[in-house]
Task: structure prediction
Amino acid sequence: MDLAIVFELLGDYDEWRKVFDEDLPARQEFSESMIAGPVDNGQVVILSYGVDMEKMTAFMGTAEFAERTGKFHGPPTVYQLTEMAPPA
Result:
């Protein structure tokens, strides 16, 4: 499953990015790849490809994850990306 995860950044982007980058080995257990970056209005978008939702939910649902990331962002909005057929 491919996802776009959007959240409002509450803390410093560079500090959040450091935590995100440190989680790379764990993310590789549930996603083929993730690309993250800031967008307008103080938001961050993470594009996640090949996600195993069960494993991702288990990782993100821990108290330890909430403690490390909670100061940086509010609840995320998760969108499922779908492939569209090219125009005829």
